[in-house]
Amino acid sequence: MESITQLFDSLWRDYSQRLCPSAVQIQQLLTEDSALLNDHIALRSFGLPKCGLAVIAAPFIALGYQPQAKYHFSAKKLYAESFIHSNPLLPKVFISELQLAGCSAELQQMIRTLLDQVDDAYFRQPDFVYSGRPWQLDFATYQFLAAESEYAAWVAAHGFGANHFTVSINQLEQFANLEEVNHLLRHNQFVINQSGGEIKGNAEVMLEQSATMADVVGVSFRDGIHKISGGFYEFAKRYPQTNGELYSGFVTASANKIFESTHR
What we know:
By secondary structure, the chain is an alpha+beta fold. It has a single domain (4-259), classed as 2,3-Dihydroxybiphenyl 1,2-Dioxygenase, domain 1. Helix content is 31%, strand content 25%. The chain is built from 8 helices and 10 strands. The chain has helices spanning 4-19, 22-30, 53-61, 105-115, 139-148, 150-158, 178-187, 252-258; strands at 38-46, 66-73, 78-84, 92-98, 162-168, 200-202, 207-211, 216-221, 224-229, 232-238. This is 2-oxoadipate dioxygenase/decarboxylase.
């Protein structure tokens, strides 16, 4: 079993090279005297025993992470859970899965056909969470899936890896709020997710979030390379609770809009 540092380093390497190359530039824009603090990462999967949320969570739980809260996104047919470590400097982990029972029979069959290409043993290796797509896929299948569920198409095309990392704004001295961060990003030609407003949440719910729109990346399909939405970078500001500790959970309404950072 690799260490927590190795796991997140591997997730970052895959994310910044394969899914969101612009993350490196954003890091350079925001880094001050010390390395950026990563508030959380998010991972996606299909809600099947072979590779579902519990399977994605296993490598993190083996390294000391514990379940924190559960979230439902009925319109998107998604279920998610967050996980937290006793070390407050370690990123929170947000894992979601597509609830296939709520999808069409055609979509369900396509997903099962993709997974049938992969041995169960593959998902017992902890490094699968940053190993990309283990099945073959043609672009027509991707387009069919996208017409019903952008989320399903994203996972089918990219496989496994962090769809976003998140900069903790609380640590920054140069930027007091998300408005300033978003202004800098726009000045450097980054497009901000506008779904539900540039900033999702507020001080009342103790969490504010914003995100770039996903990078467009080239992905290899059976019939050639096509450019589609990859990963994005998120930014979060947390507010103190009555006990003085920063709120550590997530806000369903805000997370629902953050998912749309991969919509193009």
